[in-house]
């Protein structure tokens, strides 16, 4: 059946995201928290993440564009971004943020700019992946199926 | 005029008369002018002492003159008045001249003595002049010595000192040649080291045991020597006689000489010889003061040379120390860099290794939930367990560096001891069966089923030891025995520092793993537990492994207050690995938590803490939402705040726990903790304050403990972790998650 096919696609896709390192265990935790009382929890959190991150990335671009860069502010923003991305399990974004913070600590502007590019890249990739994921889920729901829960014992 | 002359008066001769007349006139003139001159000159000079003599003399002369003048009138017949005047004049003249004559007898000796005194004074003046000259010369000599000394002492360079000495001496004494002979290393010859005029140094040596040289060395005075002496033959033979030559000894003092009160004998003392030659075409001779000058200079030179030597020594020592210091500093910095690099490498590798580990664990878990055959399920479970072990190992590689500074702590918990052994057996059985090794496990009947300790690390140790046994055995069997060690058997002669103290709530677990493998030669046994040291025998070379296993085991065993060692009778005779660890005896048998490694029943929607009021403070919106959902899932009544001020406003005694996300090292968290403590100081229902952080370092944990927090949880928090953490927290009221 089509729903089964889409469900399998979803599972495959999710697996691939794990394999490639886009997601980590935290995302599974989020999915565990989603249930009948809160069916859109994951989607809510992820869209919250997107809004937050977009703002943070804009702030970061502006801050690094200044003639005299305020590294403390930059560091604070990156820290926020790191926190958000690790909360939802966006692993690559989180890793890029960690590298970014290192450059902030030594106040290396070129490094920071490179890292910002990297973070942006990872963020857009992650956003893309999440959107695909949600589209698949919506397709399943639209076709009347239920989203397969990934259960595991950690 | 009556004339009493015997001759008859002849007729008056006119010519004669005329001449007499003129002469008398001139005489009178002269006689009158002399006193005038005298008076004039005496008036001019104020010093003449005998004025009245002059008056007398003047009178005498005037009268004589007058007499002669009056005589002029007597040539012609003259009157009686003239005659009487003449007579008066003559009488007066006679009187005065007699008086004058008498006076002169007294005066002339006086005048003569004046002359003598004058001569005497002149001599005295000449003598004083001479003496002055001498004193001046001496003073100049003294000045020269001072100047020379100053010149010599103003430099601390040996060569400059000697050269300056020669130059200055040459200048002061106007020498033709000045030379310094230094003793050679052997001490048997004197070598011409420095000369004043000769610019081309000709290496020229003279044996030291020459009578003249000995003579010079025997006294500290400067001694005249013959110009033909070998040390004095410095100038080519000239037309003139060579000038006088003087030689003086210059003691070469060594540092040690200063410590001796009495001067050592001549034979042990080294001297240099200074030879000074006066110009050959002058008739100069060596004067005493010049010799004294030379002696004084020689002494000064000796002192200056020894100062220079001391300084050279200390400069050399200082340079050496500086070089060593630089080298040590460099080595220290290199070592620090190496340590940093290693730590960084470990940290990065650790992180890099965790990432795929997560993927493996996650996917294996995913796989577990799918449809599997029993064998497949077993395989997947083994994969999961192995990867968990591997994750632990990765932690431990990072820990090893922390083990070294002792910051690792055991994760104590109650666990099933039997299950641990069974687990090890299960894990090792596949490999052992491939190698056709027989593995047997025997647990003593008095071994308690449950124990308190670090289960993961104990399992790791046993696994490592058993793994080694399997690795190094090609055939035969492996026997694992475990029992409670009795106090008598605990004392091992091999480990005198291991003094186990048995007590009521602890017991010592002794595990022996005997294999029939290739064994270990006795001299290699001490190296087995050394990090990365591999036994290079041919049998083991291709068996792989990092050499880290036993080192880590040893550290874990030490942390568990135990001891590990290996016995072997030699190569080919197998070996037995034995370790003893201290484990706690749990008080209540029924209170245990199932270890996370075994499959845990998943309680979805299990509300563990119904209605527990908690407050979550997190500035990050995303993580705040996640944490809230997590706690809500566990049934808590969650209030969320986004800032510390809101937190302080919202916290009330109804809240049982306050979760604070601390990011940047927090004066903020300190402040909030303090305020909460203050606010609830009166009532004893203070909410527990727990920090949520992603920082895994000890400092953060210590800070939290220090500022009064009740607990610390590491992010990321899984649902199950949060559940277990909350239950622990509420029961014990404190929880600092082991890092």
TrEMBL record, chain A:
Any single GO CC term annotated in Swiss-Prot or TrEMBL for this entry: nucleus
Primary localization class, coarse: cytoplasm
Positions where Phosphohistidine occurs in the chain: 79
A single MF term (Gene Ontology): protein histidine kinase binding
Alphabetical keyword list: Acetylation, Cytokinin signaling pathway, Cytoplasm, Nucleus, Phosphoprotein, Two-component regulatory system
GO biological process: cytokinin-activated signaling pathway; phosphorelay signal transduction system
Transmembrane regions listed in the UniProt entry: none
Compartments it resides in: Cytoplasm, Cytosol; Nucleus
Domain HPt: 38-143
Biological function: Functions as a two-component phosphorelay mediators between cytokinin sensor histidine kinases and response regulators (B-type ARRs). Plays an important role in propagating cytokinin signal transduction.
Domain notes: Histidine-containing phosphotransfer domain (HPt) contains an active histidine that mediates the phosphotransfer.
PANTHER family per the UniProt record, alphabetical: HISTIDINE-CONTAINING PHOSPHOTRANSFER PROTEIN 1, PHOSPHORELAY INTERMEDIATE PROTEIN YPD1
Record-given protein name: Histidine-containing phosphotransfer protein
TrEMBL record, chain B:
Location in or out of the cell: Endoplasmic reticulum membrane
Reactions the enzyme catalyzes: ATP + protein L-histidine = ADP + protein N-phospho-L-histidine
PROSITE patterns according to UniProt: HIS_KIN, RESPONSE_REGULATORY
Keywords in alphabetical order: ATP-binding, Copper, Disulfide bond, Endoplasmic reticulum, Ethylene signaling pathway, Kinase, Membrane, Metal-binding, Nucleotide-binding, Phosphoprotein, Receptor, Transferase, Transmembrane, Transmembrane helix, Two-component regulatory system
Membrane-spanning segments: 21-40, 52-71, 91-112
Amino-acid positions noted as binding Cu cation in the UniProt annotation, renumbered to this chain: 64, 68
Name recorded for this polypeptide: Ethylene receptor
Keyword Transmembrane helix: yes
GO cellular component: endoplasmic reticulum membrane
CDD domains membership: HisKA (cd00082), REC_ETR-like (cd19933)
Residues of the Histidine kinase domain: 348-587
Lineage, top ranks: Eukaryota, Viridiplantae, Streptophyta, Embryophyta, Tracheophyta
Source species of the chain: Hibiscus syriacus (Rose of Sharon)
Residues involved in ADP binding: 468-471, 515, 531, 546, 550
Family to which this protein belongs: Belongs to the ethylene receptor family.
Reported function: May act early in the ethylene signal transduction pathway, possibly as an ethylene receptor, or as a regulator of the pathway.
Main location: endoplasmic reticulum
Topology in the lipid bilayer: Multi-pass membrane protein
Glycyl lysine isopeptide (Lys-Gly) (interchain with G-Cter in ubiquitin), cross-linked positions: 715
